[in-house]
Amino acid sequence: MIRVILPAHLRTLARVNGEVSVEISGEPTLLSVLNALETQYPVLRGTIRDQVTHERRPFVRFFACEEDYSHEPAETALPSAVVAGKEPFLIVGAMSGG
Amino acid sequence: MSGVRVLVGTRKGAFILTADGKREKWDITGPHFGGWEMYHLKGSPVDPNRIYASQSTNWFGQLIQRSNDGGKTWEPVGNKFDYATVPGTHQWYDGTPHPWKFARVWHLEPSLTDPDTVYAGVEDAALFRSTDGAQTWHELPGLREHGSGPRWNPGAGGLCLHTIILDEKNPNRIVIAISAAGAFRSDDAGKTWQPINRGLRSEGIPDPDAEVGHCVHHIAMHRLRPNSLFMQKHWDVMRSDNAGDSWEEVSGNLPTDFGFAIDVHAHEPETIYVVPIKSDSEHFVPDGKLRVFRSRTGGNEWEPLTKGLPQRDCYVNVLRDAMSVDSLDSCGIYFGTSGGQVYASADAGNSWNAIVRDLPAVLSVEVQTLQ
Hints:
The structure holds two protein chains of two kinds. Chain A is α+β, with helices and mostly antiparallel strands. Chain A has helices at 8-14, 30-40, 80-83, and strands spanning 2-5, 20-22, 60-64, 67-68, 89-93. Chain A has a five-stranded mixed β-sheet, covered by helices on one side. In chain A, a hairpin with a 2-residue loop joins strand 3 and strand 4 (67-68). Chain A starts with a strand and ends in a 5-residue tail after the last strand. By secondary structure, chain B is mostly beta strands. Chain B has one domain (3-370): YVTN repeat-like/Quinoprotein amine dehydrogenase (Methylamine Dehydrogenase, Chain H, 7 Propeller), CATH 2.130.10. In chain B, strand 4 (37-43) and strand 5 form a beta hairpin. Chain B is built from no helices and 30 strands. Helices cover 0% and strands 41% of the residues of chain B. Chain B has strands at residues 3-10, 13-20, 27-32, 37-43, 51-57, 61-67, 75-76, 89-91, 97-99, 104-110, 118-123, 126-130, 138-139, 160-166, 174-179, 182-186, 194-195, 216-221, 229-233, 237-240, 248-249, 258-264, 272-277, 292-295, 303-305, 323-325, 333-336, 342-345, 353-356, 362-370. In chain B, the strands form eight sheets. Chain B has a four-stranded antiparallel β-sheet with strand order 3-2-1-30, with no helix packed on it. A four-stranded antiparallel β-sheet of chain B has the order 4-5-6-7, with no helix packed on it. In chain B, strands 10-11-12-13 form a four-stranded antiparallel β-sheet, with no helix packed on it. The model of chain B has no long low-confidence stretch (mean pLDDT 97). Classes of the chains: A alpha+beta, B mainly beta. At the A-B interface, helix 1 of A face strand 6 of B.
């Protein structure tokens, strides 16, 4: 199980409180986490990445183990601490006010 | 008993205001979708409890919400807006080619006959339609592929399709408007389109009389007189009496003919309303006075409506979709401001009250007349 922390607006959309967990079959990567998340919470489709191009939305960032994964390729493996469930994978709305 | 429901979209959520036919006491619910930009909400004419809402932010993109109980509860529906064909390029602000890219839904127009059919006007400009209650969306690509698309350029808010007018007398006719491309009409239910901009003159484009490129801000039509269209252009208030084949200016004695909103009285097809804004760089009302101007002659002769509206130190804007009318016997007029006020008149504009005054900046106002 991969622990995922969503930004507040997406928690509201998905109707969840706190962090969520997703099951990954195969090697956990950025892509597989996003796929699993959107399968489990279809309302999130299009909110984190474009539905057509699958590009990360510009104001969304991916953090894990104090590292920025926002610009890593989709097939990038998640760090072992995230795979082991010791650390969460963070999806963050860019800190840009508004 | 009759009543009205006012659907207000703001920069930070949606609000629903209801009142009985007297329109004196208002109940307000919201914010719905707090923190999200609610560009537009509109109810189905055939099922008023069916309401569609456009929800977006720069952070998390576009969602569409649907209510089946008049806005008490909502469910997210389809939000995949995929252009039907390779979209190519339009002009950027500096005239260079710029790739077409979906950004948001500006306007939702429910069908006049089927609550499950709804049209969406989007940025970058295109027209989409859903026939399954907004679960899935399909572009009507004939508009974007009209051929003039590479010459369309964005207005300050983006290359947005913001106006969709359906004609109850002619189901095959659709009129739309795009900033800054102009107005277009289809007479075959959206398959093919023709620009309807003859008579428009815009000094901000290389050829002021060009076939396309005009920054049309909004168009209004009376449902019983569909060939008469009233337009608030970037500058100039215009009218057409041949469904857009040609336009004439009717700005007349307005203090400024820049503005965004325009609407038509529910029962008087020649009575129209605008809110003049000082200029395209000063998006506030002139002289610190919030004035709605009414013409009972279909333009040219305008009277200021001020009773109940602030007449000093007021510097708000009224956006293109932020004015609406009800169809009660005494026609009600409503508009929302960038300052968060929603004003209502239950007597066709003779007098006004702020029915709520401290909302986030208002993007859209739509009114449902409930029987």
